[in-house]
Specification:
By secondary structure, the chain is α/β, with parallel strands linked by helices. It has 18 helices and 13 strands. Strands 5-4-3-6-7-9-8-10-13 form a nine-stranded mixed sheet, sandwiched between helices. The protein has a two-stranded antiparallel ribbon with strand order 1-2. Strands 11-12 form a two-stranded antiparallel ribbon.
Length: about 550
């Protein structure tokens, strides 16, 4: 497909998302807490419908030669339909004829249309539950769909009709099924941009910028690899995992994830569907990684994470302090502050957890941390850095520009781990790169593609560049009290210029003359101030 055609499809798909949001707004659901459930589920329903139709057209093109292909499909004997299902790809949702959008569209004037739409979604979820359900550690399955028209207080049938009409009018996803990650990652970001932000309360998600995820993935993945197990213990909606999977190849990796938020787990499921990783949905776990790590005994080839920096986990302290967890949290568990519990350093728990989850022979990781972590002079942060050096697993650190995240002013760095590291550590100070733009009410720093590539090339090739990067040994890091700030290792250069004795004398005379003039001006000003003070009268 040409670039212009792809751009056209992106525009049309974004228009569909905007239209669905407009329908929600027209029925009183604009900015409602349930709006994202409706938008994401109805969008996914549209995708499943068109994906099924796309695969059906490849397997049985003669069905589409009839005047009404949906009715032709509906007329197939039950056994024939079952055989047809085996002809289709194994990673698609199997729909019945009555599930299809054209079938519903032609029946929108029937009574109780809202009920029909809800029952259609529930039926699709039930019939495909094994493939698409998200699990919790205690075995509960979170289904794919739930009723969506019940969120409207009145005119439910009209609301359901408006949604179905938009699915028919805007775009046919059959045309973009051959498109890959770049297309659907763009659509996914647009789809969730109003729902995945830092205003969601205790378990808010911060969307990882594209530049950060690209740098992490391209530094981690430098070779053509066999099948890999990749993991994120605080997965959110899956941005980091999707970018990493793209770098490896979706067919060569299996995703394992855990996140405490049900909303994030549902969005991650959608992301996996859109990016050809349906086989990994069974590994999406909704739960608390710190207190109940589902993958406690698994070891992963790659781990990526942007863990929460400041999160009140005081309710979990007793559980975390149990003896069974001490081997996992070797550097300790942060104390609960008397004030500002929402500023607890939970990222330090994720760092320790990740270090223990890496494959012992091939493990690599990239973790976003607050930049303060890399220079802390004592406490848990320093003990973690000491262990990274002692275990010879620290590959390097990239300190990012300020405001790389528009939603938080915290400066961030990316810590890279590699159990096969050769002992040399790359430290990069990228804080002076990028340009500042306005994003909503916030300032955001954006890296240019060539700047991203500079960071990646410098790290992968372990290059030293004045005032940008250094390559240091473990012993050098120890002498700096385990500081991982590149700036502390930069060489201070003093430039000397040779001059003759006469030139030196002339310069000194000039300095002396300027100094005498300044002293004379100072005395004049002092006298003027004293005279002015004498003229002041006091009551």
């Amino acid at each position: 497909m040409t670039a212009n055609k792809t751009t056209q499809h992106i525009i049309q798909t974004k228009a569909l998302i905007d239209d669905l949001k407009a329908v929600c707004a027209n029925y009183g659901l604009g900015n409602d807490g349930n709006e994202f459930k409706i938008i994401t589920q109805i969008f996914l329903y549209k995708y499943f419908n068109d994906k099924f139709t796309y695969e059906l057209r490849k397997a049985r093109p003669e069905i589409f030669e009839t005047e009404n292909w949906v009715e032709t499909l509906k007329g197939l004997p039950k056994d024939d339909y079952k055989k047809l299902e085996f002809q289709l790809e194994s990673d698609i949702a199997i729909l019945q004829p009555q599930h299809l959008i054209p079938y519903l569209f032609n029946r929108q004037d029937k009574p109780d249309f809202a009920k029909r739409l809800d029952e259609t979604l529930i039926d699709i979820a039930a019939q495909n539950n094994k493939l698409f359900a998200v699990a919790t550690p205690d075995g509960v399955k979170i289904k794919l769909f739930e009723p969506i028209t019940e969120y409207v207080s009145s005119k439910r049938d009209a609301f359901a009709k408006a949604l179905i009409n938009k699915l028919v009018e805007d775009i046919n996803f059959e045309d973009v099924m051959s498109e890959g990650f770049d297309f659907f990652s763009t659509i996914f970001e647009y789809l969730i941009k109003d729902y995945n932000n830092d205003s969601g309360g205790k378990y808010a998600e911060y969307y990882t910028p594209h530049a950060v995820s690209e740098i992490m993935a391209k530094i981690l993945v430098t070779d053509d690899l066999p099948s890999r197990k990749i993991h994120d213990p605080s997965a959110g909606s899956g941005t980091l995992l999707m970018t990493l999977a793209q770098a490896i190849g979706a067919h060569k990796c299996t995703v394992y994830s855990q996140d405490i938020s049900q909303k994030s787990s549902n969005l991650l499921r959608l992301n996996l569907v859109l990016n050809g990783l349906i086989h990994s949905i069974q590994n999406v776990i909704q739960g608390n990684t710190m207190t109940n790590p589902y993958y406690r005994d698994e070891k992963f080839h790659y781990i990526v994470s942007n863990p929460p920096f400041k999160l009140d986990f005081s309710d979990d302290i007793d559980e975390l302090n149990k003896k069974v967890n001490q081997d996992r949290f070797f550097a300790g568990i942060p104390n609960v502050p008397k004030k500002a519990k929402n500023k607890m350093a939970i990222y330090s728990l994720f760092l320790q957890h990740i270090m223990g989850s890496l494959h012992p022979k091939e493990g690599k990781a990239a973790i976003v941390v607050p930049t303060g972590f890399i220079t802390a002079q004592a406490g848990i942060d320093k003990r973690i850095r000491e262990q990274m050096i002692a275990r010879k697993m620290l590959a390097g650190v990239v300190s990012m520009p300020s405001n790389i995240f528009a939603t938080t002013g915290t400066n961030v760095s990316i810590v890279f781990l590699d159990v096969q590291n050769d002992g040399n550590v790359v430290l990069i100070d990228a804080s002076n790169l990028g340009r500042t733009i306005k994003e909503g009410k916030n300032q955001k720093t954006v890296l240019e593609p060539k700047e991203e590539q500079k960071i990646i090339d410098t790290f992968v090739n372990k290059k030293a560049e004045d005032d940008f990067s250094v390559v240091v040994s473990s012993d050098e890091i120890k002498t700096k009290n385990y500081s991982l700030s590149a700036g502390q290792y930069f060489e201070i250069k003093i430039e000397y210029t040779d001059i003759t004795a006469d030139e030196f004398t002339t310069k000194m005379k000039g300095f002396k003359s300027n100094l005498e003039n300044l002293f004379a001006e100072s005395k004049s000003l002092e006298k003027e101030i004293q005279n002015n003070l004498k003229e002041l009268r006091y009551e």
